[in-house]
Design a protein that fits this description.
Layout lengths: L2 E6 L9 E5 L17 E4 L14 H6 L5 E5 L2 E4 L7
Antiparallel strand pairs: 1-2, 1-3, 4-5
Length: 86
Amino acid sequence: MPIYEYEHTQGSDICPVRFEVNRPMKTPPLTKCPVCKKPVHKLFGSVYMPKHLKKVNVREATSNGFTVLKKSSKGEYEVHKPDRGI
């Protein structure tokens, strides 16, 4: 289930200003806080994007069943066979 973030539109003495809720995707967004029943609105959260991506390891990819192609000439590719040496 996705995690949704909500924020109170009015102050609440009981609840924090922002809170997170696990809810199924098909349910409509909350309009009231489940605890204090005051109005809330849904926030758009950030998406996790790694700052660096791991380079593709050809040996690891082939051992996991992937076919790795290597560009041999203009517009043509052939199956890349990694070196067996260490």
